[in-house]
Amino acid sequence: MKKILGAACMVLAASSVQAQSFQSTDDAIAYRQGAFQVLAAHVGRLRPVVRGQVPYNAEAVEDVVELIETLAELPWAGFGPGTEGGNSKKDIWANNKAFEDTRTQFIVNVKALKEAADKGDLELVKKSFNEVGQSCRTCHDNFRHKR
Ligand code: ASC
């Protein structure tokens, strides 16, 4: 019983932490922009590898992709209800299913990149990297104001 109560408390604590994550819309925007920036920095590290500008080091690529897999989960918490603004189009909130579908496809593509990196298969890494990049572009085209 104690264990069950403990688990219930932890779930409650986790959800209240999430609810209190952002003090304001500006905080949510800063969070998602910061998360995308760190994500983009790691995606960018793979670019010379897939372009053949540096030798393929399977272990180094695995390390970066592992971080990308984690970072890819982060920005979305910053798109909560009522956080319209920044470079985001209102469609994210008004057309939420399309945004969710794009995000889901992005995560699927990131998982495929992880599998390719774990296999140490450079051709597969290139292919799945390009598919991840395509997901980034689709979302920018549809849901980010041109800058
Ligand atoms: C990146 C980055 C993006 C995407 C995009 C892919 O590294 O910062 O926004 O890749 O350029 O098309």
Automatic annotation (TrEMBL):
Pfam families: Cytochrom_C_2 (PF01322). GO terms for molecular function: electron transfer activity; heme binding; iron ion binding. Heme c binds at C136, C139, H140. GO terms for cellular component: periplasmic space. Binds 1 heme group per subunit. Residues 1-19 form the signal peptide. One of its GO terms (biological process) is electron transport chain. PROSITE patterns: CYTCII. This is Cytochrome c. It comes from Pelistega suis.
